[in-house]
């Protein structure tokens, strides 16, 4: 079996597109040392769908992507644009303290 290499989360916690959400999901999976196939099985999707989720690929429904995020411990926040930068900085400051 292949070794799962942990990947750091994206530096910017802001999810701007499917690719940035996919990168956060992949980071969460690899940091938990969960192989891709195991994650796919746990979420109830194919290996290829899991790859598409992590790459931000087209063709994966939002409910499936959100389920993958939830199952792998990625939390999303709906923040008004006027508060986005304050929240982003707070997340980065907390991450820097750890």
Automatic annotation (TrEMBL):
Pfam families: HTH_3 (PF01381). Gene3D superfamilies: lambda repressor-like DNA-binding domains. It comes from the Bacteria. One of its GO terms (molecular function) is DNA binding. Signal peptide: none annotated. This is Uncharacterized protein.
């Amino acid at each position: 079996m292949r070794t799962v290499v942990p990947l750091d989360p994206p530096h910017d916690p802001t999810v701007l597109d499917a690719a940035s959400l996919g990168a956060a999901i992949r980071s969460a999976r690899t940091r938990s040392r969960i192989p891709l196939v195991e994650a796919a099985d746990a979420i109830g999707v194919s290996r290829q769908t899991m790859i598409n989720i992590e790459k931000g690929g087209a063709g994966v429904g939002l409910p499936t992507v959100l389920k993958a995020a939830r199952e792998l411990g990625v939390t999303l926040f709906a923040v008004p644009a006027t508060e986005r930068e304050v929240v982003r900085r707070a997340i980065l400051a907390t991450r820097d303290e750890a």
